[in-house]
Design a protein that fits this description.
This protein is an alpha/beta fold and about 280 residues long. It has ten helices and twelve strands. It has a five-stranded mixed β-sheet with strand order 3-2-1-4-5, with helices on both faces. Strands 8-7-6-11-12 form a five-stranded mixed β-sheet, sandwiched between helices. A hairpin with a 2-residue loop joins β7 and β8.
């Protein structure tokens, strides 16, 4: 059975896995993402070089407006290191293997279709809630990238005078609670202290803004299911609270649009990237 290197390039960590064709993980690792473009490129080409004799191809997911054919990233909202080099060409040069590259949220929804919560659906919207808000759209079982590879970028929509990712991203919730308590906290801290009225108020305000993003996307695209991903989904009450708030604001959605948490965790992007690689290369 052939083996593949799947790389998930994030703003904080570069995570990679060696997978077989059936997505079984043989090996994985991660390194902190460097922000200087040349060092960033060296990290990725180093991983590719280390594994070039052990794998048969490379599949990459990364934030941005990705042209999967050319490898270009034209996203104005990501760091310069994500845009400075054509990673598809650079990794092909170093490894000698075919390389596929795709937006990370697009890969995540493909991963959920292969091995997660979207197995039984053809019309799907996914939102990943984290430092920002990423999104992906599948219609009729096919990924919808848009004319300029920008489809699904819900975080760049406006909510009043705010970008929606700055209103509903997990980072905003954590930052507001940190300011309240006078120290740096994380997501679990917020959920552990929701009995405190001021923290609960911040959480409810944040949840309502996020629910508007979710509901608006559902209203616009009419998917069978809205999938919600990101580390915050590990909090048991989050999806329950989000569903309740969305259906409170948009009660008619209850009849025809499900809201579900993603199931493949931080492997979603890598599984989806490999699924795309298999489809386009094999």
């Amino acid at each position: 059975m052939k083996k593949y290197l799947a790389i998930d390039i994030g703003g904080t960590f570069i995570k990679y896995s060696v997978m077989e064709e059936d997505y079984r993980i043989l090996e994985e690792g991660s390194i902190p993402t460097k922000k200087e473009p040349e060092q960033f490129l060296e990290q990725l080409t180093g991983i590719a070089a280390d594994y070039k004799k052990k794998v048969d191809g490379i599949a990459v997911c990364i934030a941005g407006f990705i042209n999967p054919k050319t490898g270009e990233n034209t996203d104005f909202s990501v760091g310069a290191h994500f845009r400075a080099y054509n990673l598809k060409k650079e990794l092909e040069r170093v490894s000698g293997h075919a390389v596929t590259i795709e937006n990370d949220s697009n890969c995540a929804v493909l991963g959920e279709m292969v091995a997660g919560a979207a197995r039984d659906y053809k019309d799907i919207c996914l939102l990943t809630i984290g430092t920002g808000i990423g999104g992906a759209i599948v219609m009729g079982g096919n990924l919808w990238r848009g004319s300029h590879f920008k489809a699904g970028e819900a975080g760049l929509m406006r909510l009043g005078e705010e970008n929606s990712e700055y209103a509903g991203a997990t980072s905003v919730l954590v930052r507001r609670v940190s300011q309240l308590v006078g120290k740096t906290v994380d997501g679990p801290y917020v959920f552990e202290h929701l009995l405190e009225s001021e923290i609960a108020g911040i959480y409810q305000d944040w949840l309502e803004k996020l629910s508007v993003v979710v509901g608006n996307m559902a209203m616009l695209l009419d998917p069978q299911v809205m999938l919600i991903g990101g580390g915050i989904c590990q909090e048991p009450r989050f999806i329950r609270d989000l569903k309740a708030k969305v259906y409170e604001i948009y009660p008619h959605l209850l009849e025809y649009t499900e809201i579900k948490g993603c199931e493949t965790g931080n492997q979603a992007g890598r599984i989806g990237a490999l699924a795309l690689h298999k489809e386009e290369i094999l």
